[in-house]
Amino acid sequence: MTHRYIAAIDQGTTSSRCIVFDAEGVIVALDQREHAQLYPRPGWVEHDAMEIWHQVQAVTRGALDRAGLSPADLSAIGITNQRETTLLWEAATGEPVGNAIVWQDTRTDRLIAELAGEHGQNRFRERSGLPLATYFAGPKIRWLLDQDPELRARAEAGDIRFGTMDTWLIERLTGRHATDVTNASRTMLMNLSTLDWDEELLAALDVPRAMLPEILPSSYVYGEAGPFGGVPVAGALGDQQAALFGQACFAPGEAKCTYGTGSFLLLNTGKTATPSERGLVTTVAYQIGDEPAVYALEGSIAVTGALVQWLRDNLGIISAAPEINDLAAQVPDNGGCYVVPAFSGLFAPHWRPDARGVIAGLTGYVTKAHLARAALEATAWQVSDVVDAMNAESGVELATLKADGGMTASGLLMQFQADVLDVPVVRPTVAETTCLGAAYAAGLAVGFWPDVEALRANWSVDQRWEPRMSVEDRDAGRRQWRKAVDRSFNWLS
After folding, report:
1. Taking a C-beta distance cutoff of 8 angstroms, is the pair 83, 240 a contact?
2. Which pLDDT score, from 0 to 100, does residue 1 have?
3. Exposure of 282 by Cβ count < 10 A (0-12 exposed, 13-18 middle, 19+ buried)?
4. Are the C-beta atoms of residues 163 and 199 closer than 8 Å to each other?
């Protein structure tokens, strides 16, 4: 019997991987490869898109080989991706005109200030759901076109194409220049109500419509994957929306947090886009075929797992990321040390591009173990700041946090997260929910799964952490954390 499995390609910030799932949503095989992080100038972060394409092909073949499968065994392929990362390529040849500008990149900071002008940070929020920030793709496109008048002319003529990484892979696999609604909602160019490119936003950002991809639903057959025997490419979701989908958060009020390079908390708000006044982002959660789109509130945190990588690669405090938990566990607390990892400014709920990282509270007592613990705690405190904003915005107190992503392997972090939130934190049996969400979207589009209730039935608990910190300790820690955050502001004038 063929067509028994779904493959999900996860094109992430630091690596690309492919996971093959069976009908119960269980992992059958996985392959993963890192790609280079390019830092041509301070604050600039780039990726080589052709390197990524080669890695994606390699991990897809690798996962199939590990499972002893061929493309004929797949019902569909789903794609999930690092969002906002911006690439331009030639329509005729498919060759990139330069490296991709990564979501963390801050080179558009002056442009952001110029666009805000007298209007302020929320100039485009009503239409796009997004605050003006270096994070999003639209200003990155504008910056690239502003650097090269010839490139702009070619873009206006339709000779240059734009895409986030989902679009890059969809076109490479199927030949179709398309994106899904979740990724389009991160460009600052799509109207949240119409789910189409917005002429007013395009004009304000000076981005030619001719270079933009077609916007399609998240669960939808985009085309056939030529390099993999014509398997349907039938799903695409930005990575955080994919994790929400994989966590089976299909009802309004359900939320998840993904702990990866950054951390991202999403709350399903149903079929209505909820505007934010507290630093959250209004975004599209997913769209299944012809059904109405579902929306979410999102709190985006730029640096969490990336801080662990920094401790490993830049300071040499650990030799491998998993060592952070054991090192941090050598001490009972942070020794009074707090780390605010504002490497790319601070995202939600502050949106301060002028912020830069600080280590506060240092004394001669502090060791590398305290620093490791403070780094893990920084993730939990940043998530706590977002939860506070989300509770106030939605009017509904978070009761349980569904957690996924690589950092959930740290029991110390998950316990501390439960402590500072004062709610249980739950990790599902399949922690690879980003890939699982992409697989679910693709599977629904081709009838591999009948409906979302079948997906919900697959979800089960692996581990649960209950809060146990005293109110006094929690409040004292929060006061110190907020002092440290305040000291990260105003580093760039």
Report:
1. yes
2. 42
3. buried
4. no
> What burial letters (b/e) apply to 93-112, b meaning 16+ CB within 10 Å?
eeebbebbbbbbbbbbbebb
What does the block give as tokens for 480?
A: 């110190």
Supply the pLDDT for residue 238. Answer: 96
Q: Which helix (H) or strand (E) holds 6?
A: strand 5-11
Question: Measured between alpha carbons, how far is residue 323 from residues 7, 211, 308, 318, 332 in Å?
Answer: 31, 45, 10, 6, 17
Which stretches of the chain drop beneath a pLDDT of 50? 1
| Angle subtended by helix axes 433-445 and 239-246, to nearest 10 | 80
Q: What is the pLDDT of residues 412-450, one digit of tens each?
A: 999 999 999 999 999 998 878 899 999 999 999 999 999
CA dihedral for 335, 363, 42, 323, sign (positive or negative): negative
> Given this model, what pLDDT does residue 246 score?
93
In 10 A of CB 305, how many CB atoms? 21
Estimate the crossing angle of helix 411-421 against helix 368-394, to 10 degrees. 40
3-state secondary structure of 238: strand
Tokens of 228: 């993999």
Q: Please list, in sequence order, all residues whose beta carbon lies within 8 angstroms of the beta carbon of residue 46, skipping any fewer than 6 positions away.
A: 38, 39, 40, 99, 100, 101, 102, 105
Residue with tokens 């004009």: 203
Q: In this structure, what token pair is assigned to residue 263?
A: 């951390």
pLDDT confidence of residue 493: 64
User: Helices 471-487 and 368-394 sit at what angle, rounded to 10 degrees?
Assistant: 100
Q: Which two tokens stand for residue 353?
A: 């591009």
- Token pair, residue 133, equals 């920030």
Task: Please count the other Cβ atoms lying within 10 Å of the Cβ belonging to residue 170.
Answer: 26
SS3 462: strand
Q: Which of 237, 219, 284, 257 is nearest to 83 (CA)?
A: 237
Interatomic CA distance for residues 348 and 344, integer angstroms: 12
CA distance 36 to 1: 39
